[in-house]
Amino acid sequence: MPDERKYEAPSSFEKVFNRMLGTLASWSLGPSYVHKLQVKGRKSGKLYSTAVSLLELNNKTFLVAPRGRTQWARNAEAAGEVTLRRGLTRRYRLRALADSEKPAVLKAYLTNYKGAVGRFFPIPPDAPVEAFSQIAAGYPVFELLPA
């Protein structure tokens, strides 16, 4: 499988749904793992937001871009930090995971959120963790650290 994967842009419906889900999350409504991510644009400096699903694994919190190198992921890489809202607003520094660190996180993410993100992964959640090594480069993954 190739290291890079094609970015899959959301449909108009997905954009509206994502906006609504982010608004609900900012009010502490909806699933507890959904947060409204806010990040400054790397070129414009404008504040952008989107709904994201966080993954708790081994006492660490991870942020995964299941669609690939999305604009929010590129902006987050450039800024080195993001703000998450779920009732309260909290800032986090980001640590981008090396491809060798991603397989277990990607497997857990796909297992937990298969219904929402399964179509963005070329392998099933029950594939061995080694299979996720082959696709790791196509998925930005960040560990959230206190700011």
What's the layout of helices and strands?
Blueprint: H1 12-26, E1 34-40, E2 47-57, E3 60-64, H2 71-79, E4 81-86, E5 88-96, H3 102-112, H4 114-117, H5 129-133, E6 141-146
Antiparallel strand pairs: 1-2, 1-4, 2-3, 3-6, 4-5, 5-6
Provide an overview of this structure.
The protein is of the alpha+beta class and 147 residues long. The chain has a single domain, classed as Pnp Oxidase, Chain A (Roll). The chain is 30% helix and 30% strand. It has a 6-stranded antiparallel beta barrel with strand order 1-2-3-6-5-4. The longest helix is centred in the first third of the chain and has 15 residues, at 12-26. It starts with 11 loop residues before the first helix and ends with a strand.
Give a quick summary of the entry.
The chain has 147 residues and is an alpha+beta fold.
CATH architecture descriptor name: Roll
The fraction of residues in strands falls at: 25-35%
Task: Identify low-pLDDT runs.
Answer: none
What Rg is obtained from the alpha carbons, in whole angstroms? Answer: 15 Å
The total strand number stands at 6
Largest sheet: 6 strands, antiparallel, barrel
Helix content: 25-40%
Q: Identify the overall geometry.
A: globular
CATH class: Mainly Beta
